[in-house]
Write a structure and sequence with these properties.
Layout (H helix, E strand, L loop, with lengths): L5 E2 L9 H4 L5 H12 L7 H25 L5 H23 L7 H16 L3 H13 L19 H6 L2 H7 L2 H9 L2 H12 L8 H22 L2 H27 L4 E2 L7 H7 L3 E3 L1 H8 L5 H6 L8 H15 L5 E3 H15 L1 H5 L2
Parallel strand pairs: 1-2, 3-4
Helix pairs in contact: 2-16, 3-4, 4-5, 4-12, 5-11, 9-12, 9-17, 12-17
């Protein structure tokens, strides 16, 4: 899997035929049985209590430091720290949305709304709808919203069809990727407000109220405590680093892995494994990425609590080896190199068209 390609109807059947030798769906059923017997789907309330308490205390410490420092350039250190805290809040909202924390819908939604909308400034309902569609069809050119050519292109086919901004940016998107990530936090908030009028939004008034409350506190605090110039610099540093952090957590998971075209037939196990990449790195990477470095296992078992993913990884990799299914994992820096190399490669048709 060193050189990810596009999976089409003409893709070699050698990767797929393992599933045909058994009754359809049974390959994943066997893995699910092994994971369940190992107790890896049980809730971990102590883990999440400790983790969320630490994130909450760190957020509170950041707010206290901000108020104590006053109108000082030292606030930029607070901006850096809060960028990391916001990233961790995003990971917490992610786990709540997948019901990794609570098995029931109501507490999951309540926690998600408070964490995403009120604390982070991102619509829980909008993001959950988008992320659910991604999980159902990862890296599918037509069905995965995360690879829609809104700004960047993710396959040569998308590059050849690109017009407007994606066509302009796609030529040099590998170079522009990290600078563009500085806008990701603001982009999430913008799309959150935009989605309030959408048909998929179940509680637009509640979500809108929480979003307005977040930004009233956020901007009110900035421009009350800091001079306008310092407030704008704080905003740029905080939101920019938050966007880079969040993008750096999610980008290594699928970018540069095989893209799926319409008409390709893959069973659930192969669809999730072949389009996902795990990131190695031990405890540091586990904490940095909130368990999303075990992306293959997360896609196979979305409700699996974070601390169970490492053990599930060993079971899944062994099982894929039994079936002859390619299982890709690499280091953090190597994962970004693969993603950027892929982005440069798919932008080639645009550069050649000059």
């Amino acid at each position: 899997m060193a050189n990810p390609t596009v999976l089409t109807e003409n893709t070699s059947i050698s990767v797929l035929e393992g599933g045909a030798r058994r009754e359809r769906g049974s390959d994943f059923a066997e893995l699910s049985r092994r994971v369940t017997e190992a107790g890896l789907l049980r809730r971990r309330p102590l883990y999440y209590s400790v983790r969320f308490t630490l994130v909450g205390l760190t957020l509170a410490g950041g707010v206290v430091s901000f108020l104590a420092l006053g109108d000082s350039w030292a606030q930029l250190f607070v901006a850096v720290g809060l960028a990391v805290v916001f990233g961790q809040l995003g990971l917490a909202a992610h786990d709540l949305a997948h019901r990794q924390v609570f098995s029931r819908r109501r507490p999951s939604e309540a926690g998600g709304l408070l964490t995403a909308n009120l604390l982070l400034g991102m619509s829980y309902g909008w993001w959950m709808n988008k992320h659910t569609r991604h999980h159902a069809n990862p890296n599918h050119e037509e069905k995965d919203p995360d690879v829609a050519p809104d700004l960047l292109v993710w396959s040569r086919g998308q590059a050849r069809r690109a017009v407007g901004i994606p066509r302009f940016i796609g030529k040099h998107q590998a170079v522009l990727f990290f600078p563009l990530l500085t806008l990701e936090g603001l982009n999430l908030s913008f799309n959150s407000f935009k989605a309030l009028r959408g048909p998929s939004m179940k509680r637009p008034r509640l979500e809108g109220t929480l979003l307005v409350a977040h930004f009233a506190l956020y901007f009110g605090g900035l421009f009350t405590v800091l001079s306008p110039g310092k407030a704008l610099v704080f905003l740029a540093v905080h939101q920019g680093l938050f966007g880079i952090y969040l993008g750096s957590v999610f980008a290594p998971n699928h970018k540069g892995m095989p893209m799926i075209e319409e008409g390709t037939r893959l069973d659930f196990l192969r669809r999730q494994v072949l389009t996902s990449r795990n990131v190695d790195g031990g405890v540091f990477v586990d904490a940095l990425m909130g368990g999303l470095n075990y992306q293959i296992e997360h896609h196979l078992f979305p409700s699996m609590p974070t601390p169970a993913l490492a053990r599930a990884q060993r079971l899944t990799e062994r099982y894929c080896a039994e079936l002859g299914i390619p299982y890709h994992h690499t280091g953090l820096l190597a994962s970004h190199r693969e993603a950027l190399r892929h982005m440069r490669s798919v932008g080639e048709p645009l550069r050649a068209a000059r």
